[in-house]
Amino acid sequence: MERKIGEIFTYEGKAYQVVVSNKCDDCAFEFAGCGWLMSKVGICNHGTRSDKTSVVFKEIKNMEIKNNQIAIYIPKG
Question: How would you write the chain as a 3-class SS string?
Answer without folding.
Answer: CCCCCCCEEEECCEEEEEEECCCHHHCCCHHHCHHHHHHHHCCCCCCCCCCCCCEEEEECCCEEEECCEEEECCCCC
